[in-house]
Amino acid sequence: MAEQTVLTKPAIQVENLDLYYGQKQALYDVSMDVEVNTVTALIGPSGCGKSTFLRTLNRMNDLIPGVQIKGTIRLHGESIYDRNIDVEMLRKQVGMVFQAPNPFPKSIYDNIAYGPRIHGIRNKKTLDEIVEKSLRQAALWDEVKDRLRDRATGLSGGQQQRLCIARALAVEPEIVLMDEPTSALDPISTSKIEELLQELKNKYTIVIVTHNMQQAARVSDKTAFFLNGELIEYNDTATLFSNPANKKTEDYITGRFG
Ligand SMILES: Nc1ncnc2c1ncn2[C@@H]1O[C@H](COP(=O)(O)OP(=O)(O)OP(=O)(O)O)[C@@H](O)[C@H]1O
Question: Of 91, 108, 245, 253, which has the highest C-beta tally within 10 A?
Fold first, then answer.
């Protein structure tokens, strides 16, 4: 019998992406595939375009006046910049967690139920189930299950960030974008989120911007190194850190600049 090969298509395919803020070009001819059920880290010195690139993946840059994009980004083969794309649906499929935890000034429960309610879920039992499941997935349930009606802003910073992850998961995205999600957190909260990523990648595809190379090496399967708006190198994390193909990558990871 012929050996069966499982072909996993990339979750996201980026081809020849250029991005301009007005006259200023911030991304140059970036092409890369993001694979399903992996953690992909975006690294590089400040201002190299990591966050800009991340935001192109769910069209968050649309909110910034004067942004122009050339090239193609496909989600499961479909171009996300096509005219007929429903951007709200895109952002449901491709969720986002930001650098500083930003819970809404509402209860823990209402933070998680917010997205599902917007998408039309009204049934109390269904919402209860979504809230519990999302908080469990974000490894926060045990800490908050007895105070779901308390205000989310009363949680610690690390708990707030896990709440924001739970809020992103509540609308059942496929891909979760994280922009330096631990940079405002203490080491214990950081390691909780790093552990969480290893769980989450079984179900989701994760793209994370990080300033911290050790973090990229610990949490990611693939790493993309950006410099001055160009994607210099993209490879398996272990290979990129142990045997970089490009001299610029080597100089960066060995601390010669950045
Ligand atoms: N809203 C904006 N308007 C104009 N230029 C911008 C805007 N946002 C970012 N830029 C510019 O685009 C370039 C890339 O910025 P970006 O924030 O993507 O880099 P980064 O690698 O994420 O940096 P950091 O690690 O400091 O967050 C920088 O030169 C920045 O000044």
Answer: 108
